[in-house]
Design goal:
Layout lengths: L1 H12 L4 H13 L1 H24 L1 H9 L3 H22 L4 E4 L2 E4 L4 H13 L2 H16 L5 H30 L4 H28 L2
């Protein structure tokens, strides 16, 4: 079960979406600690989803079966992404030099963590993913309660490892970034989050 969890976590880590945009934005504009703060928010959110979907799967499935669930969560999640995107596009960052590295004037790490937590929690994909994982694990004829911990440890551990690796790689790239491009990079990240938010709303209205 540990191997299955690692493979599932590896597949999940390769997906491109608003989470990787948030990780790279924080890492490239403000450094390793900001990137890890975003990752921390994502990991807390995932840990709560694991807990809730595994221990209360029946209640979570009832909530998901509510006809307006996908639309409501999609609209809220889309608006949150649009808000973060607009903030990045409209906010004019102040660039500073520290230790030979160019960076945007720092924001509290708690804000980065909250950003990661909200983007992950209000993403319908995250809800359906962890619910589907819990349902498949519990429903499997070969499932044993003792298998749950190594499976989830494999998935969660791979998510944490891959996110940390992304942040670490971004740290290396950041040293070569000039101040002008750093400001453009934040706007690019903001536009990407805007696009993800708009697409999420459209998908929620027409396809869920």
């Amino acid at each position: 079960m540990l191997g299955q969890g690692i493979l599932l976590g590896l597949g999940l880590s390769m997906l491109v979406g608003p989470l990787i945009v948030a990780l790279l934005e924080a890492s490239l504009t403000q450094g390793f600690r900001a990137g890890i703060a975003v990752g921390g928010g994502i990991w807390i959110s995932d840990a709560l989803f694991i807990l809730f979907t595994y221990l209360g799967l029946a209640y979570v499935e009832q909530l998901i079966d509510w006809p307006g669930f996908g639309l409501t969560l999609g609209l809220i999640g889309g608006l949150v992404l649009i808000a973060f995107g607009l903030g990045a596009v409209l906010f004019k960052p102040k660039v500073k030099m520290a230790g030979g590295e160019t960076s945007i004037k720092s924001r509290p790490l708690s804000r980065w963590m909250l950003k990661g937590f909200l983007i992950n929690t209000l993403n319908p994909f995250t809800v359906f993913f962890w619910t589907g994982v819990a349902g498949s694990v519990i429903a499997s004829p070969d499932f044993k309660p003792a298998d749950a911990f190594p499976f989830y440890a494999g998935v969660f551990g791979m998510i944490v490892l891959s996110d940390t690796l992304k942040v670490w790689l971004a740290k290396g790239i950041r040293k070569k970034i000039k101040s002008g491009f750093l400001q453009k990079l934040q706007k690019i990240a903001g536009i990407a989050l805007l696009c993800f938010g708009i697409l999420l709303i459209i998908r929620s209205i027409w396809f869920l």
